TrEMBL record:
<dbReference type="InterPro" id="IPR016040">
    <property type="entry name" value="NAD(P)-bd_dom"/>
</dbReference>
<dbReference type="GO" id="GO:0016646">
    <property type="term" value="F:oxidoreductase activity, acting on the CH-NH group of donors, NAD or NADP as acceptor"/>
</dbReference>
<dbReference type="Pfam" id="PF13460">
    <property type="entry name" value="NAD_binding_10"/>
</dbReference>
<protein>
    <recommendedName>
        <fullName>NAD(P)-binding domain-containing protein</fullName>
    </recommendedName>
</protein>
<dbReference type="InterPro" id="IPR051606">
    <property type="entry name" value="Polyketide_Oxido-like"/>
</dbReference>
<dbReference type="InterPro" id="IPR036291">
    <property type="entry name" value="NAD(P)-bd_dom_sf"/>
</dbReference>
<feature type="domain" description="NAD(P)-binding">
    <location>
        <begin position="7"/>
        <end position="193"/>
    </location>
</feature>
Length: 206
């Protein structure tokens, strides 16, 4: 399968590239700084470009079946600014499936009906800036024609792959505190073969 991974130079993105190649898929990555990707593999195509450049996005989509975005907020608006370009290019190319890494802040609050966690007392984050960026992406995906899944980890230490964790549609699993980077990437990657969480958010925690 031809998979495009965005945000491949980040922590989760790097793991996604590894899983994709281990599973014998053809992996394409779009990266501003390709030299950060220290992998040499015949099944890996690295395209130098920027997710904020429409032409670069379109170029990277050629022949792709699934898009996985591990773009993070990075203190900027890159996440929300790039998503309209990604959605437009996917719809134009006829690519339906996108899996993105979000944040537990955009899951539903258990304590405050009709609110998201970052808008309620459930969230322990002092800053809501990152959650607001992810919220914008969630709203854009809802309005698109795509088959999307947003994987929403809580606190995300590097850690080891444990291989067992809890997931729950639209909510963070009860008393979920953390989930490692490798396990988050593993679950996100597994969604390319799953239709369990189409057009929905899914919380993940130990």
């Amino acid at each position: 399968m031809n998979i495009l991974i965005l945000g491949a130079t980040g922590r989760v993105g790097g793991q996604l590239v590894t899983y994709g190649l281990q599973d014998r898929h053809h992996v394409t990555v779009l990266a501003r700084t390709p030299e950060k990707i220290q992998i040499n593999n015949a099944n890996l195509t690295i395209i130098q470009g920027n997710v904020l450049n429409k032409d670069d996005i379109v170029r990277s989509m050629y022949g792709i079946v699934v898009v996985i975005s591990a773009l993070n907020t990075d203190g900027t608006t890159t996440l929300s600014a790039s998503m309209p370009l990604i959605i437009e290019a996917m719809e134009y190319e006829g690519i339906q499936r996108i899996i993105t890494i979000g944040t537990a802040g955009i899951l539903q609050s258990r304590t405050t009906p009709n609110s998201l966690r970052y808008q309620s007392s459930e969230s322990k984050q002092k800053s809501t800036r990152a959650a607001k960026e992810h919220h914008k992406v969630y709203e854009m995906l809802k309005q698109s024609t795509l088959l999307w899944t947003i994987v929403c980890p809580t606190y995300l230490p590097d850690g080891e792959s444990v291989g067992t964790y809890r997931v729950e549609g639209d909510f963070l699993p009860e008393n979920g505190v953390e989930i490692s980077v490798p396990d988050t990437a593993e679950f996100a990657f597994s969604q390319i073969k799953s239709s369990d969480y189409l057009k929905s958010r899914v919380g993940i925690a130990y």
